[in-house]
Design goal:
With 224 residues, the protein is an alpha/beta fold. The protein has a single domain, classed as Aldolase class I (TIM Barrel, Alpha-Beta Barrel). It is 36% helix and 21% strand. The strands form two sheets. Strands 1-2-3-4-5-6-7-8 form an eight-stranded parallel barrel. The longest helix is centred in the last third of the chain and has 23 residues. The structure holds the ligand O=C(O)c1ccccc1NCC(=O)[C@H](O)[C@H](O)COP(=O)(O)O. The site of ligand LARABZUK has 27 residues, from strand 2 and strand 8.
Length: 224
Amino acid sequence: MRHPRIKICGLRTPEAVDAVLRHGGPEVGFVHFPKSPRHLSLPDMAALRAYLGDRAAVTIVTVDPDDALLEAIRRDIRPDTIQLHGSETPERVAEIGRRTGLATMKALSVHDAHDIASVASYRGIADRLLLDAKAPKGAVLPGGNGVAFDWRLLAGLPAGLDYMLSGGLTPDNVGAALRQAAPPGLDVSSGVESAPGVKDIHLIDQFFDAVLAASQPLEGRRAS
Ligand SMILES: O=C(O)c1ccccc1NCC(=O)[C@H](O)[C@H](O)COP(=O)(O)O
């Protein structure tokens, strides 16, 4: 198994950005959703983006964004990817990709095999998928809830699909997720926080260490 791409989502401070960059500068996510404890206003996001520079790929998490918001994000933040975490249809995802020129990552919530089947509607339309757990009943947030789904469902995915496994990952369970599903990417938010919206540098370190520890034996096995 190749070392998966890792996105640490919901960063809000230069200290948290630095903690991620120490592990090789993979991918960071900034959330623009006012109800979220991880929300960044566009000016705050632009400041953090300027601090980061080009040291990591940037994904902006949005929920059913309108065209004006997308244009402001494109112009002021210049991300690599727009994450679409609402009820965007395949047509809307395609339109957003065309309109912004940005890569799109469509988040799909997974609870059962039927949800895995819905992947087909977005394949070849979104540049990447993010497979997340379904938000608990009554939850305010569509993502970032720290809830996992049954990773055995991922066995039903089409071969070669580019996606990130997300939802309830932690330093303690990410090794099991890698061994069970070998996803090409991982996304985490709550599992590296000490409180909602507050990233914990030690947990970020532990998450990367756990991924490395789980990836190495698998790579060794493949090489021999
Ligand atoms: O994280 C949020 O607050 C959020 C708010 C609104 C839409 C999406 C949001 N997060 C999206 C993500 O990509 C999270 O990293 C993903 O859902 C996993 O979260 P977690 O289970 O907390 O690791």
